[in-house]
Amino acid sequence: MLNKVDRPWAGVWALDAALDLREGPPRRGVTMVMDSGIGMTALHDLLDLAGGHIDHWKLAFGTSALMARATLERKLEALADRKILTFPGGTLLEAAIVQQHCRDYMRRARELGFTAVEISEGSIDLPGDRRRRILDCARNAGLIPITEVGRKDPARQPSAGELIEQAHRDLEWGAAWVIVEARESGQGIGIYDRGGQICETFLETVVDGLGDRVDRLIWEAPLKAQQAALVRRFGPNVSLGNIAPHDVLALGALRMGLRFETLNPLALRKAAEGRWNPAAAEPDRPGPAALGDCA
What's the confidence (pLDDT) of residue 287? Predict the structure, then answer.
């Protein structure tokens, strides 16, 4: 996040208080980027432009297995320099589990420079005790365990009660965060219906069931409408995942009330509460030469 002296609009708009809400580290409400294959030039450009707004970086599904090791290590090093948590997609670990190479996977993840690991059952089934032991294995390898709840198959979605139960167990077993599955489509998965809209009853059931642990959830929200709805529901510090690299700054603006989806409700609420009158002139403030009556 930009410090105050680097903010280009500091003191012009009343943004400092909102920006301060997103300060860290540690920052409340993470932004997790899903990288399905951007190169080093694009990565460095993105980090220069928006690195301060990124907290987690996931190399989606099995993509990290398909690039040269030296390239992967350079990517992870660049992200580590920005103190961004990095982890491979959970599908890669699921493949390692099927091949009976879970421990080897954890050791190699650490050797490559990953700082965390995602533990999921999007494509396979695991007994509860096995899932717990995988979390232990991750910690023993020096990795931060992040779990994912939900299924990738729209026909096998867990109930809200099942999702709540699994999330509680994962947190008790030492998960740092729990991701709520939505895939990259955000349709027909988790809290979303087939059109990508939030199932409000399902969402509120999960929120009630998690109680004060709800802040440990990362909601995958690949679509702008989903991000806007979750920011309106939980505020600017909601944790959101599966954000496309090119959408990082746009999400930051959404969090700060600098897009229609979040500014319009704020303006309407302030007007209704009598805290803003669009017809009233602004009070005088010390600063450069007056601009006449334009304000």
Answer: 57
